[in-house]
Task: inverse folding
């Protein structure tokens, strides 16, 4: 190392408090930590999946203040004070959320890897009012990929959940 070069300064850890699945949670994190890594590695919420880590597959979808968010693209510190919902926070005890129940009823999962992101995206799509027709569901859910090809069952599940939530 030349004398004019300095080693990079260590990242400074900062406090972060957010509402995680209905409870306040406080962490001390480095500025570059993504919301996905915070949830999985520090929050122990491994239902949120790391798929492509580039925002292209939707496996990491969570709800931030009720809106669909790709957690692999979101810096955790940007969400201070926000309400984050993961798949672990969707059910009410042993009672599945209507979208979760519809996914089971319509066999809208195969390997299950994409399922948490699909379900949270579906919750957001329905809340956004973008699930009025099968074509609208397909379009709104197009950012969530399923390598197993369960798309027809996913569309049927979202449509059934939409009706159950009315």
Result:
């Amino acid at each position: 190392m030349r004398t004019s070069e300095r080693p990079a300064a260590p990242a400074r850890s900062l406090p972060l408090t957010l509402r995680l699945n209905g409870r306040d949670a406080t962490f001390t994190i480095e500025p570059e930590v993504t919301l996905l890594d915070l949830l999985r590695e520090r929050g122990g919420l491994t239902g949120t999946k790391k798929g492509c880590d580039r925002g292209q597959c939707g496996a990491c979808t969570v709800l931030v203040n009720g809106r669909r968010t790709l957690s692999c693209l979101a810096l955790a510190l940007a969400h201070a004070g926000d309400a984050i919902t993961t798949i672990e926070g969707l059910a009410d005890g042993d009672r599945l959320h209507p979208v979760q129940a519809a996914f089971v009823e319509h066999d809208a999962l195969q390997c299950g890897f994409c399922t948490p992101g699909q379900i949270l995206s579906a919750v957001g799509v329905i809340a956004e009012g973008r699930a009025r027709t099968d074509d609208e569901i397909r379009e709104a859910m197009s950012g969530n990929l399923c390598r197993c090809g369960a798309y027809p069952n996913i569309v049927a599940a979202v449509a059934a959940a939409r009706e159950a939530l009315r």
User: Anything to note?
Assistant: The mean pLDDT is 95.
